[in-house]
Design goal:
The protein is an all-alpha fold. It is built from two helices and no strands.
């Protein structure tokens, strides 16, 4: 207890001890016990504080690990976002190219439709002309046949008239 020996038991039993010395000696024991209790209380609080500090330190370590994981996830998401943004830009460019090609093809299709309509019209005219020529040839052949037939009739009538005369 670290209390110096100020009095012996014989000093107290032998008669008239110095009252101040006795009070000092007793107060030293009182203070030693009180400080021992205070020290024990402080040690208990210190233990509680150490437990709290340990708990907070482990919580802080968990939070730090969680923070690191979140930072890694954030970085991964940022990389993914950059990749998606890049892919989106490429696809947007490709979509613009395809739209341009589509417009060109639509224009070409329109021109081809016009050419097809012109060709069909020309084909109709050609067929009409061909039919017209065929009809004209048929009429010429018919007229030639008629002329021959009439010429043969005239010749026969002429021969018949000769024979009759």
């Amino acid at each position: 207890m670290n209390i110096p020996k100020l009095l012996d038991a014989s000093d107290l039993l032998g008669g008239d001890p110095d009252e101040r010395s006795v009070q000092l000696y007793v107060s030293m024991f009182f203070h030693a016990f009180a400080s021992k209790e205070e020290k024990e209380r402080i040690e208990r609080e210190k233990g509680k504080m150490a437990a709290k500090i340990d708990s907070l330190a482990s919580g802080l370590a968990r939070e730090e690990e969680e923070r690191k994981k979140l930072i890694q996830e954030k970085e991964e998401l940022e990389r993914e976002h950059a990749a998606v943004a890049s892919e989106l830009a490429l696809k947007s460019e490709r979509a613009a190219e395809l739209e341009k090609i589509k417009k060109q093809l639509e224009a070409e299709l329109g021109e081809l439709k016009k050419k097809l309509e012109a060709f069909e019209e020309l084909q109709k005219r050609s067929l009409s002309l061909s039919l017209s020529l065929s009809l004209s040839l048929c009429l010429q052949k018919y007229n030639m046949l008629i002329f021959r037939v009439q010429g043969t009739r005239v010749a026969r009538q002429h021969e018949g008239a000769k024979q009759v005369s």
